[in-house]
Automatic annotation (TrEMBL):
Species of provenance: Drosophila lebanonensis
Domain N-acetyltransferase, chain residue ranges per copy: 158-281
Cross-referenced InterPro entries: Acyl-CoA_N-acyltransferase, Acyl_CoA_acyltransferase, GCN5-like_dom, GNAT_dom
GO terms of molecular function: acyltransferase activity, transferring groups other than amino-acyl groups
One Pfam entry name: FR47
SUPFAM superfamilies: Acyl-CoA N-acyltransferases (Nat)
Stated name of the protein: Uncharacterized protein LOC115630678
Signal sequence range: none
Amino acid sequence: MDMSHSLVEIERSDWAQLRDLYVHKRTESVGYQCLKNFISWIDQEPSESIKLLSLDGDWKTDGTFIIVANIGGCLKHVYFNTLTENLERLKIALNCLEGKSGDYLLFGYSAHLIPALENFAKRLTGKPLLPGEQEETVWYHASKKLVDSFTINVPEGIKLADLVIENAEQINEIWPHRAPGSVDFVRRLILYNVSVGAFDGAGNLIAWCLRLPLGSLGLLHVTDGQKRKGLGSLLVRYMSKKLAELGDEALAPVVVKNVASRSMFEKLGFRQIDSVYWSAV
């Protein structure tokens, strides 16, 4: 850890000012919408364990920040970004994070930020962060014009409704990235963010789409026996319109290996604008 520098917590009264520095980064994974998301969470529940940190107290110069969020699961989430192409201050800031191997999940960082992780990951794990240890996703975006063109035709016998906390167990149980305590993360997504579920005539939840802390779509799933009916596409279009109503961009990370999901997003007209990564360190 770099002892000549330190991380200083950014006062909550300054979070909106930091967010607005990223107003031109509305489609980045950890940018305007991510900061807006966490401001909303704290407004709804001030006791949430979410900290915004700056290097040596200076975030106004180049927008360098780190978010450490203990929001469910066995790992603390770390989100980070900077407005400068020179990643040196971000690299130093990350290296100031205290911890040990197995403490953190680096959440949804853009490909261009990977060089900033080198020293931090090596200090925690004792080795460089290898490409195979980073979960790569395609970062998709739908333009406002495209979202405006989306139609919502709900099949007969299907009802779309907001998810409720009681749905979290079912969603977490099927989630490929579930881990000890991850159900609490899912509960927070339902509690604080917009979401949608598709329910059959008997009231059974058969498909869903949530919103990640990045501000993007996430955890999209259609249960077995309900696939190939267009429900995934329907929920993506529905949620994209919900985000547009909030003045936000329609964004989505899709695991590179998930060819079927990538094909669906691209068929809808979503365009890849970045590669975004997750890694546990």
